[in-house]
Design a protein that fits this description.
It is built from two helices and four strands; from the N terminus they run βααβββ. By secondary structure, the chain is α+β, with helices and mostly antiparallel strands. It has one domain. The strands form two sheets. The chain has a two-stranded antiparallel ribbon. Strands 2-3 form a two-stranded antiparallel sheet.
């Protein structure tokens, strides 16, 4: 018999894009990733990239600590038996 568990990991981030870079980054993101993208799409892409790839580079946006800044505020792990 096997024991099955389901784990949910919730991470909260603070993401900043300087105002003087926001329009340029959004235009590049729309050209490369999605023509209908908005500012929220940028932040979602950065957070997704950080969680999934732990990378300092985000496709369509650029490099962390150059084009954007991100810091992890909290992490919560919940485990439940199936």
């Amino acid at each position: 018999m096997k024991k099955k568990l389901m784990a949910t990991i919730t991470k909260k981030f603070e993401i900043e894009i300087p105002d003087n870079k926001l329009d340029e980054i959004l235009k590049d993101f729309q050209d490369v990733i999605s023509s209908s993208a908005d500012n929220d799409s940028l932040f979602e892409q950065i957070a997704y990239n950080k969680v999934m790839f732990e990378s300092g580079f985000c496709e369509g946006i650029g490099t962390e600590k150059e084009e954007y800044f991100i810091s992890e505020l909290s992490e919560c792990i919940e485990v439940e038996e199936l």
